[in-house]
Design brief:
The protein has three helices and two strands; from the N terminus they run E-H-H-H-E. With about 60 residues, the chain is mostly helical. Strands 1-2 form a two-stranded parallel sheet. The two termini are about 15 Å apart. About 5% of the residues are buried. Participates in chain elongation of fatty acids. Catalyzes the reduction of trans-2-enoyl-CoAs of varying chain lengths from 6:1 to 16:1, having maximum activity with 10:1 CoA. Has no 2,4-dienoyl-CoA reductase activity.
Length: about 60
């Protein structure tokens, strides 16, 4: 799981200027919510992912696209 900027205490520690810069470069233009990462995270140990190996799931609002 490769999350982008997610609204957490850790992200708050970046400071508002750093987070604003990240948001400015994120195509969706906002900080992600933890609830947006949870479904992808729960997918990995599920039976639906039983044939996945070495996969990177990026949840970053398009920042790395």
């Amino acid at each position: 799981m490769l999350p982008g900027l997610i609204d957490t205490q850790m992200a708050a520690g970046n400071g508002p200027e750093v987070n604003a810069g990240i948001v400015a470069n994120t195509p969706l233009g906002r900080i992600g919510a933890p609830a947006e990462v949870v479904p992808a995270t729960l997918f990995l140990p599920s039976d639906h992912a039983s044939f996945l190996t070495g996969t990177e799931i990026v949840v970053d609002g398009g920042l790395s696209a």
